[in-house]
Design a protein that fits this description.
Blueprint: H1 2-10, H2 13-48, E1 49-58, E2 61-64, E3 70-75, E4 82-83, E5 88-92, H3 95-151, H4 157-210, E6 213-215, E7 220-223, E8 232-233, E9 240-244, E10 249-255, H5 256-260, E11 267-272, E12 275-287, E13 307-308, E14 311-312, E15 316-323, E16 337-343
Antiparallel strand pairs: 1-10, 1-16, 2-9, 3-5, 3-8, 4-7, 5-6, 7-9, 10-15, 11-12, 11-16, 12-15, 13-14
Length: 344
């Protein structure tokens, strides 16, 4: 060691300076190389892998609204209960609707009886018309016979006049009967139309009665149930929400250049915060073709906020991913967070 120090001290000053600079250059080269390698990995990683933590579980929230207004008689489900399509949820007091059905049934019966009476009257008038037609035929024959005899002067003018009067009377009677028959036909037609209208009103009343039973339109879970017996419900106002158990999917927000390059059917891996120890498989259904630039309540375009706290992010597009195979619903909660990894 002493010899090396003596040799170093004995070396010219320029040689000693060059020896001191070489380690610094070597260190800078290693730092630059590491930086370039890290940059290559970072940017190169994005060319082959797409990852986002801005994702969540989505389904359809089906709003159940009554088609008739009334007082809730019973509620047979509870909050968070799983129901199947067609299961009874609640009933509205059916008594007013049943009374309306009974009233319409009585009206149909009365009008049907009126049709029967009118039809019988029409049949009687039809018989009278047939008799008047036969009488007219006989009167015409008698007049023709008398007129022929009068031409040969075998009968008097008075006989011819009486035959002519009888023929005219028969014609008038047939005309009256024919007009009356036409009136009766129209009355029967009008009575039948009234019956058809009453039957339609009865069908509407029966439909309203059937709508007093609120049933589940889809398989799913009852959400945020506040409906209670005694509540008054109105037509078209949602009273129960059901999270559809058949429409689970992931909505992932990716940067524009990433989302635009994703192919339909691309395989994806999903981490669910509600089930963090399981890796779930999925496939890209498609990329949303539009987003709203401004948050608008009830807008038809989804709005993806471009800011997180104080940092403004780049615009992102929504990518819909379906579970493949379907994930167990016990780990799926609408709105829960998720993370998505795709290999492009």
């Amino acid at each position: 060691m002493t010899a090396e120090v003596e040799l170093r001290d004995a070396a010219p000053p320029s040689t000693r300076a060059a020896a001191a600079v070489r380690p610094k250059r070597r260190r800078r080269a290693w730092i630059a190389g590491a930086f370039l390698l890290a940059a290559a990995i970072y940017f190169g990683f994005g060319w082959f892998v797409a990852y986002t933590e801005d994702a969540y579980i989505q389904s359809d929230l089906v709003a159940v609204a009554p088609e008739v207004a009334g007082i809730v008689q019973s509620v047979v489900v509870h909050y968070n209960q799983r129901v199947s399509a067609g299961d009874l949820i609640a009933t509205i007091d059916p008594r007013p609707f049943q009374l309306e059905v009974d009233l319409k049934q009585q009206r149909v019966a009365v009008l049907a009886a009126a049709v029967l009476v009118t039809s019988q009257s029409r049949d009687a008038e039809a018989a009278k018309l047939n008799a008047a037609t036969a009488a007219l035929t006989m009167s015409q024959r008698e007049f023709d016979r008398v007129a022929a005899l009068a031409g040969d002067r075998d009968v008097s003018q008075a006989d011819l006049d009486r035959a002519s009067d009888a023929l005219k009377s028969a014609r008038d009677n047939r005309t009256v009967r024919q007009v009356q028959a036409e009136v009766n036909d129209r009355e029967v037609t009008a009575a039948k139309v009234a019956v058809a209208v009453a039957q339609a009103e009865l069908a509407i009343a029966q439909y309203a009665l059937s709508r007093t039973r609120l049933t589940a339109p889809v398989d799913g879970f009852v959400n945020n149930l506040t409906l209670r017996p005694g509540d008054y419900v109105r037509v078209g106002e949602a009273v129960v929400g059901i999270v559809d158990d058949t429409r689970w999917r992931i909505v992932a927000n990716f940067k524009e250049e990433v989302a635009a390059s994703l192919a339909t059917g691309a395989h994806a891996w999903i981490w669910l915060d509600s089930d963090p120890w399981r890796l779930v498989s999925g496939r890209v259904q498609g990329v949303g073709r539009g987003i709203a630039r401004d948050p608008v309540a009830g807008g038809l375009l989804p709005y993806v906020a471009p800011t997180t706290d104080w940092i403004r992010l780049r615009r992102r597009l929504q990518v819909t991913i379906l579970f493949d195979p379907p994930a167990p619903s016990n780990a799926l909660f609408m709105g829960a967070d998720a993370r998505v990894l795709l290999f492009r």
